[in-house]
């Protein structure tokens, strides 16, 4: 059924927008316990309640991708990931929506600056949508007529703008791409008021993200609101690169894994394990906790290590091509590994706690479902491993964008 929604215009910020990474991270850390308290409500609503959206807005997370030149805080990808990790420690769905919604400042770099400034008059505006081309865009005078139905509109129920991928047509015929692709595609920015939300989001996990299907019917999109990741139009520096929107995603996985470890460690420290014994003295419990901690520490270090190295190279050389093949492959691989390790940690802890895990009041039940669902995202799939492996071996990645490789990079020089 189609859910009628008012325009998702967010109210003006209630407090001055935070201008530093430290302040945004501190605010995110402070609201995490409040998000944990609301986790049941968030999951039951199958979207973020309005007051939870405002909690997130107050942290500054939605604007953290806007550069200092825009008057934003200009957080690095490392700093963005830390913020998403802190929020996801409180609630996974809130962290996921924060991660998606914070892309507004990143997309702005792929638009002409006057256009982007008109679209985003405030730094706390939210963008949602599906990037893969699932729609149809007919080329017309001045722009495109966009139609289609897309899935996975995470955060779309509180978004200001919706970005959607679509194949190009002219006169009903496919428009070829510049790299020889028989069918070109672009991304299109559409105001939320021109989008119909279809309430399909009944899922295993991540229920609170409101990642519903959505429909756009013959909406005229001006040419200046179409973009591709090949073309940085108004950005520069370490964030002005085609895969920038994927970099902070591991924060969700790391946040939930840390939350599960802290929760179980606290429970077993006080729970009896039998006559005259604590559960914390049980051999299996000790080994499981230790193994999970080891996996978490190694995964977190590899994730942030890859991001820091990327930042160093881009700050110095300004080009992803300056990374070695191993350094470039480490980025998507560490991201995929973070997602899968989070699922593994939560699963092992769920098994460790046995029947106490199965009841819906248990956060382990929700975390098991959330990590299972988020590992179905493409960033956690074998296609990422193939792409990284192909890059290491000099082959052809099936998902080159995960490595920051665009059609322009593959075009003959």
Automatic annotation (TrEMBL):
GO BP annotations, alphabetical order: fatty acid beta-oxidation using acyl-CoA dehydrogenase
Domain of life: Bacteria
Signal sequence region: none
Keywords of this entry: Oxidoreductase
Originating organism: Cellulomonas flavigena (strain ATCC 482 / DSM 20109 / BCRC 11376 / JCM 18109 / NBRC 3775 / NCIMB 8073 / NRS 134)
Regions crossing the membrane: none
Domain Acyl-CoA dehydrogenase C-terminal, first and last residues per copy: 252-381
Family: Belongs to the HpaH/HsaA monooxygenase family.
Gene3D superfamilies reported in the protein's UniProt record: Acyl-CoA dehydrogenase/oxidase, N-terminal domain (1.10.540.10), Butyryl-CoA Dehydrogenase, subunit A, domain 2 (2.40.110.10), Butyryl-CoA Dehydrogenase, subunit A, domain 3 (1.20.140.10)
Protein name: Acyl-CoA dehydrogenase type 2 domain protein
Pfam families in the cross-refs: Acyl-CoA_dh_2, Acyl-CoA_dh_N
InterPro entries: Acyl-CoA_dehydrogenase (IPR050741), Acyl-CoA_DH_C (IPR013107), Acyl-CoA_Oxase/DH_mid-dom_sf (IPR046373), AcylCo_DH-like_C (IPR036250), AcylCoA_DH/ox_N (IPR013786), AcylCoA_DH/ox_N_sf (IPR037069), AcylCoA_DH/oxidase_NM_dom_sf (IPR009100)
GO CC term (a single one): cytoplasm
Domain Acyl-CoA dehydrogenase/oxidase N-terminal: 38-103
GO MF annotation list: acyl-CoA dehydrogenase activity; flavin adenine dinucleotide binding
């Amino acid at each position: 059924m189609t859910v009628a929604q008012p325009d998702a215009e967010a109210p003006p910020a209630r407090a001055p927008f935070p201008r530093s990474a430290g302040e945004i991270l501190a605010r995110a850390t402070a609201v995490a316990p409040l998000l944990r308290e609301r986790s049941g409500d968030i999951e039951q609503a199958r979207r973020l309640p309005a007051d939870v959206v405002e909690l997130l807005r107050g942290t500054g997370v939605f604007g953290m991708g806007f550069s200092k030149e825009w008057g934003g805080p200009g957080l690095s990808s490392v700093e963005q990931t830390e913020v998403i990790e802190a929020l996801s420690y409180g609630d996974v769905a809130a962290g996921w929506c924060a991660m998606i919604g914070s892309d507004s400042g990143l997309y702005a770099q792929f638009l002409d600056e006057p256009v982007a400034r008109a679209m985003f008059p405030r730094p706390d505006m939210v963008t949602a949508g599906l990037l893969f081309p699932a729609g149809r865009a007919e080329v017309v005078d001045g722009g495109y007529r966009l139609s289609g139905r897309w899935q996975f509109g995470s955060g779309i129920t509180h978004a200001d703008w919706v970005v959607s991928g679509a194949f190009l047509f002219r006169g009903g015929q496919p428009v070829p791409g510049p790299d020889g692709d028989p069918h070109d595609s672009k991304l299109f920015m559409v105001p939320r008021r021109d989008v119909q939300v279809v309430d399909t989001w009944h899922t295993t996990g991540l229920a609170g993200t409101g990642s519903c299907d959505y429909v756009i019917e013959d909406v005229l999109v001006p040419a200046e609101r179409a973009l591709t990741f090949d073309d940085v139009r108004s950005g520069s520096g370490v964030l002005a690169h085609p895969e920038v929107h994927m970099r902070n995603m591991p924060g969700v996985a790391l946040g939930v894994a840390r939350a599960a470890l802290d929760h179980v460690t606290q429970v077993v420290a006080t729970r009896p394990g039998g006559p005259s014994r604590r559960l914390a003295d049980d051999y299996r419990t000790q080994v499981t906790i230790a193994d999970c901690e080891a996996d978490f520490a190694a995964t977190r270090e590899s994730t942030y290590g890859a991001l820091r190295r990327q930042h160093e190279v881009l700050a110095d050389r300004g080009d992803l091509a300056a990374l070695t093949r191993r350094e470039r492959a480490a980025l998507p691989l560490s991201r995929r590994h973070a997602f899968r390790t989070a699922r593994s940690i939560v699963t092992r802890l769920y098994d460790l706690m046995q029947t106490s895990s199965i009841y819906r009041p248990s956060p382990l039940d929700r975390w098991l479902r959330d990590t299972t669902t988020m590992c179905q995202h493409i960033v956690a799939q074998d296609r990422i491993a193939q792409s990284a492996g192909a890059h290491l071996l000099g082959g052809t990645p099936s998902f080159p964008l995960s490595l920051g490789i665009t059609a322009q990079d593959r075009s003959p020089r």
